[in-house]
Amino acid sequence: MIKTKHVEQLAKASRKLIVCSCEVCGTEYLEIYRNITRSKFADKFCKKCRLEVKRKHLSKLKIDFYKSVAGKKVKQYLSRLVKEQAKNKIGAFSIENRQKQANCLSELHKDPEGPYAKHVFKVTKGLSHPNWRNDKEVYEEYKSKVFSETRKWNLHSLKGSEKRGLCGIPSATQLDHKLSIYYGYNHHIHPKIVGHICNLQFVSWKENRMKGKKCSISLNQLLIEIEKYNEKSSTTIPKGSRI
């Protein structure tokens, strides 16, 4: 039960916290409004009671399905398949052989000196991770410099800025650096070049996620566009495009 007033005025994707009351235990709890619009349980039950309610709801759906005509056919097929496996008609996929394989695998996984030890017991955090970067702090500093240069420009003048939003929202756009920040850091390009308005564009959030660290423009093309931009305006960039 929702207790917050004027909830109907909020957008469906709103992340505002709403006060709700559980119909089972009666306790009050906070829930994000976006979760309430997506789930029929979020505004009625707290997190503890919700698990039990969902479990009962799914079990009821399962029972109703197996009572239907399609469910009876599926049940008959599964029972026939189990009988065939029990008679070893499918060879290694029989029930007994599957149980033996499962027991053997569980013992191998538990053994710290077994063949799976390097996958299960190997620590892949911090310095031991294969993709660990020792210059992570330097990269984050460079990244913050690029974003500080980016914020100096009037981003509302770019096409698609009015639809700027989060991932998952239909037709939402996100700010993209054509020459990626990752490329600029690896090639020692000045942050003012990477954060220049000629290197900025708004694309859909799906395109932005798929692009990742890739570049949609070369450094030479970007420098040419910046020179053209500077000729039209009084804005200039520091001498030397690299640190």
Describe this structure in words.
By secondary structure, this protein is mostly helical. It folds into 3 domains: 56 residues, no CATH class; 53 residues, no CATH class; 97 residues, no CATH class. The protein contains 10 helices and 4 strands. The strands form 2 sheets. Strands 1-2 form a two-stranded antiparallel ribbon. Strand 1 and strand 2 form a beta hairpin. Helix 2 crosses helix 3. The longest helix is centred in the N-terminal third of the chain and has 21 residues. The C terminus is likely disordered.
Average pLDDT reading: 80
- Give the class from helix and strand content and strand pairing: mainly alpha
Number of domains: 3
> How do the strands of the widest beta sheet line up side by side?
1-2
Distance between the termini: 59 Å
Spans of at least 5 consecutive residues whose pLDDT stays below 50 are 238-243
Characterize the quaternary organization of these chains.
Answer: single chain
Question: Which features would summarize this protein structure in a list?
Answer:
243 residues; mainly alpha; 3 domains; two-stranded antiparallel ribbon; two-stranded antiparallel sheet; 10 helices; extended; disordered C terminus
Task: Write the SSE topology.
Blueprint: E1 17-21, E2 28-32, H1 33-38, H2 47-67, H3 69-86, H4 95-110, H5 117-120, H6 136-150, E3 173-177, H7 181-186, H8 191-194, E4 200-204, H9 205-211, H10 219-232
Antiparallel strand pairs: 1-2, 3-4
Helix pairs in contact: 2-3
